[in-house]
Amino acid sequence: MQLIRCPWCGPREEVEFHYGGQAHVAYPDDPAALTDEQWARYVFFRDNPKGAFAERWSHSAGCRRWFNAVRDTRTYRFLAVYKPGEARPEVAS
Amino acid sequence: MRVDGYGRIDRSRTLGFTFDGRSYTGHPGDTLASALLANGVHRIGSSVTLGRPRGISAAWSEDATGLVQVEEPFPEPMLLATTVELVDGLVARGLGGQGRLAEVADTARYDRMHHHVDTLVVGAGPAGLLAARAAARRGERVALLDDRPEPGGSLTGTERIDGRPSREFVADVVAELATHPEVAHLQRTTAFGRYDDGFVLALQHRTDHLGADAPRTLSRQRVHRIRAGRTVIATGAHERPIVFADNDRPGILLAASARDLLHRYGVLAGREVVVFTGDDAAYAAAVDLADAGAAVTVVEARPQAPAHWAGAAADRGIPVLTGSLVAGTEGAPGDGRVSAAVVTGADGARTVLGCDLLAVSGGWNPTAHLFSHVRGTLAYDPALGAFRPGEDLDGVAVVGAANGTLDLAGCLREGASGERPPSADGEPERTPGAIVWRVEGPHDRQFVDVQRDATVADIARAVGAGMRSAEHVKRYTTIGTAHDQGKTSGVLASAITAELLGVPIEDLGTTTFRPPYTPVAFAALAGRERGQLFDPVRTTALHAWHVGAGAVFEDVGQWKRPRYYPRPGEDMEAAVLRECAAVRDGVGILDGSTLGKIDVQGRDAAVLLDRVYTNMMSNLAVGRVRYGVMCGPDGMVIDDGTVLRLAEDRFTVITTTGGAAKILDWLEEWVQTEWPDLRVHLASVTEQWAVFPVVGPRSRHVISRLFADLDVSNDAFGFMCWRDTELDGVPVRVARISFSGELAYEVNVNAWYAPAVWERLLAAGEKHGITPYGTETMHVLRAEKGYPIIGQDTDGTVTPHDLGMAWAVSKKKSDFIGKRSFSRAENTDPLRKQLVGLLPTDARTKIPEGSQVVEFCPDGALPAPPVPMLGHVTSSYRSAALGRPFALALVKGGRQRVGDVVHVPVGDALVPAEITSSVLVDPEGNRRDG
Amino acid sequence: MADTLHRSPVLRHREDAFARLPEGLEIVAEPDVALADLRVPEGAVASATGVVGVALPLEPNTWVARPGGQVVWLGPDEWLVSDADERPEALEAALRAAVAPHDGAAVDVSAQRTAVRLRGRHARALLATGCALDLHPSVFGAGRSAQTTLGLVGVVLLALDDRGEDYRILVRPSFAGYLADWLLDAAVEFEPPGPAAAL
């Protein structure tokens, strides 16, 4: 049972959180201008790196706020958490 | 046999117990194993595949052999006789490797307890006690766990610490710990798993030792969930057996276990003892067993006995055969107990030594399981002939024998954590051991995992089959997969595999330890979450009324919703037909309180709703209601419902019951992560508002009677409008929303008043025959109108167009979630599955939901297999209004097929059914205004 | 007036069971009061002070007393305001009038949560059977709050004293019956002879 540090509530058990997939995937400015393939890339495709990965998490059983985290997909370790709108921090994995 | 003057059992009291149908006695403080050995019972059971006699091979949880089935006082299979504390009236029998689940319900309580500590110490031996004391003295919050009934670990009581007997040292430390209010000291508590971030799970046996006197109010077993800043692993070491031929007989025991039985329980496990060792510690067993009256011979693998112990042996007349190995054993007829050790001397000569106890020590395996559970790597230590913690982990300290430190002085020093360590008085210095894993002999009688009947021959087969890693050999041979998870066999398996492969053991490594360290009953893991507490049950404010009205409930997510209200003699079909008819002909009332409701507030509320609904919401007038559909970015429907505009800057979004939490989360996700600039706030009001749809042609009479101030005429209060009114000063919101096609008013009120308002509505409707109806009737009524249930008639692959709801998709809005996907080629395919009605042509058969839809060839025969599937039935009911069964189905190109007859396999029959419009009742919509 | 339309407390059917709890445990279903979910953007929190009567607590996981009730931090821009003296719709209206001009929001959620008071010397141990948070008074003393899970139920937990003996548990009414059953079941442990009998 890992602890995940909510930027507001502090460390809580992982079961209080909901995973939201890759972070920093912006909704396209003008979907109508995209080709089918470009649109499909947005809808269906996400990165799956080995190592540091920026993800979205929601403290769903707590303050219900979304935040971002950099996590090492090899070790599951959270390397950093940060609030929406903040830049991805530089962290060594 | 029992020896006077030894043991910490309470000989003033006698306990009666039964084993394999025979009655015996023991004493408080005994385990079942010690009591059996005291009674001369050495054979416990037989092995799982070969049926060989098996006894007790160790004194505690590392025992690989002594499995029993306990029948009384509490039936439980596959327990180790060595860890079952003796209680009066215990009934048990030996097992042949397999147990049997109890046939009576487990009525004991199980629970869990969360702890947060600065320091968790696992193991209350000398190192652990000192580590806990040091932490307590620092003022920390501490938990000290130990799996045995009493603290002290491997201390037998013969040692002297700081000039006093070791048991007094233990008592002093325990007494000091008890003075610290922030120290939790738990015996009979096994830390069985270590996880991320200092999390440790431990199982406490709380009442088993109380036998029939165990208070029923207390949990029998408790899972402690401990979050520790620092974990001190002081779990000691397991003595390691040596593999030789016929090493599996009853009477072959680990040497330290034989000594433990003597000092803890006063049990001398044999009178004629052969001690086979390459390690100093076994001499303490030899000496103590001799002092207790046994005739002892030591078979020493090393060319010379350590000087101190050679002297001690000589003082007692214990022969020490140096440079010798036990290569095999002989067994007694009857119980199969060992009767002789076959010894190969330094000169190669073979000697047969008669014995009734063969005490073995191949050295020590640090109990590093907890260290290994969370990625802690183990490293081979050639001096130990075993693996020990091989790296430093943050927040973890391994001390004492678990760290490979085998002398008491070293354990005290490591446990003291920087405090002045107590002295281990008179402890002889340890000398290097001989690492003997196996003595040459016939492979198929050399047992590596005694419980699994797995031998050196099995490892040889695994290696011969190409296995090259310890993990593969484990799975091929099943070594290490029994109840003991290889506590004593794991290192041997690695060593022998390495030997057979011709590689160094340090290169081969060992298998990874995984939780649980010892078996944990599922009941303990389930805790109190069983029976009525298994899963939360959500009820509406009217639940007591529903129960009183005889409702049959349906689980909708966690909600209990009335499915129908049977009258005496009615089954579901009859009740639902009656309820449906009452609604279409008169008036019915439903508890719709479970519908999800979200308050959307702020000057950008309409902007948000325009982005998340497929239809336009910003042009909805205050006082009006609109149906809407939400899709994911892939264009598939995720929810539907109605939207009430309360003010320019405020809406109430109604979701499905099942979508309530999901849709609020969905909206929050977009608002928080994608559109934080929108000035809009969301709040769940699902439980704030009780909702009672009053439905049917006579609903207007009921509403106007109860809410005299409300003008319920069509002109003043039209379809898809809402109005606020009051009832005795309590605000009430009434909305003309219909999920049945009938004239309907949904009455919303603060749920505090739900039962009162429900009763008033029933009273107001009494003379109109107002009929409470449940979810089944609701489903039939909506299906007759072709209104889909998201999640029943859809499955995440259905667009609004597939549902025939192109009208609900705005063409004016430049974008909304899902819009771009509608133009993807696969979403414009005319052969996509579309929602249609299905009327069985015999007008009698109710087609099961989930049935496949197939089509005959023009010649009237089924196509050749595989028969193409056109789609499937999503909803199916009997209709009171139609006087026949009907169904909804998703069918490829369905809307173009209206009028076609397709077939639905039902059992062995193919039921013909006609494809129709999905709207079967009142397609003109004449009924909604009454 | 409203009082002629009677209210039905959610836990009215559990009151007899609450009355039979062992010594050292007391559970009371508290009377429902007006509750409002208050949203105020960062930078405008002062706009609520007048109506709320106190400054909104900005530290996460805390609560403060206010005239007639309390204010609980629920999120960086969200609070739960209670008022035992005010009608729900009036509380919402007053708060909304104060914060809406500042792009805040207020919603009547009076029936969205109900409160259970848990008191007694066993209170903390009882909660620890189902709550993963550290409830030690040095960490979770008076003025602390948490949105978390108790058993399998989402709750807002408020510490009312510094001894671990007085808590308020806010729970969705639909879950309240289950939670009450869960609390009553947890309390069995503390019936005579009590937990010490296991040692």
Automatic annotation (TrEMBL), chain A:
<dbReference type="InterPro" id="IPR006279">
    <property type="entry name" value="SoxD"/>
</dbReference>
<protein>
    <submittedName>
        <fullName>Sarcosine oxidase subunit delta</fullName>
    </submittedName>
</protein>
<dbReference type="InterPro" id="IPR038561">
    <property type="entry name" value="SoxD_sf"/>
</dbReference>
<dbReference type="Pfam" id="PF04267">
    <property type="entry name" value="SoxD"/>
</dbReference>
Automatic annotation (TrEMBL), chain B:
<protein>
    <submittedName>
        <fullName>(2Fe-2S)-binding protein</fullName>
    </submittedName>
</protein>
<comment type="similarity">
    <text>Belongs to the GcvT family.</text>
</comment>
<dbReference type="InterPro" id="IPR027266">
    <property type="entry name" value="TrmE/GcvT-like"/>
</dbReference>
<dbReference type="InterPro" id="IPR041854">
    <property type="entry name" value="BFD-like_2Fe2S-bd_dom_sf"/>
</dbReference>
<dbReference type="Pfam" id="PF13510">
    <property type="entry name" value="Fer2_4"/>
</dbReference>
<keyword id="KW-0560">Oxidoreductase</keyword>
<dbReference type="InterPro" id="IPR006222">
    <property type="entry name" value="GCVT_N"/>
</dbReference>
<dbReference type="Pfam" id="PF07992">
    <property type="entry name" value="Pyr_redox_2"/>
</dbReference>
<dbReference type="Pfam" id="PF08669">
    <property type="entry name" value="GCV_T_C"/>
</dbReference>
<dbReference type="InterPro" id="IPR029043">
    <property type="entry name" value="GcvT/YgfZ_C"/>
</dbReference>
<dbReference type="Pfam" id="PF01571">
    <property type="entry name" value="GCV_T"/>
</dbReference>
<feature type="domain" description="Aminomethyltransferase C-terminal">
    <location>
        <begin position="833"/>
        <end position="922"/>
    </location>
</feature>
<dbReference type="InterPro" id="IPR023753">
    <property type="entry name" value="FAD/NAD-binding_dom"/>
</dbReference>
<dbReference type="InterPro" id="IPR042204">
    <property type="entry name" value="2Fe-2S-bd_N"/>
</dbReference>
<dbReference type="InterPro" id="IPR036188">
    <property type="entry name" value="FAD/NAD-bd_sf"/>
</dbReference>
Automatic annotation (TrEMBL), chain C:
<protein>
    <submittedName>
        <fullName>Sarcosine oxidase subunit gamma</fullName>
    </submittedName>
</protein>
<dbReference type="InterPro" id="IPR007375">
    <property type="entry name" value="SoxG"/>
</dbReference>
<dbReference type="InterPro" id="IPR027266">
    <property type="entry name" value="TrmE/GcvT-like"/>
</dbReference>
<dbReference type="Pfam" id="PF04268">
    <property type="entry name" value="SoxG"/>
</dbReference>
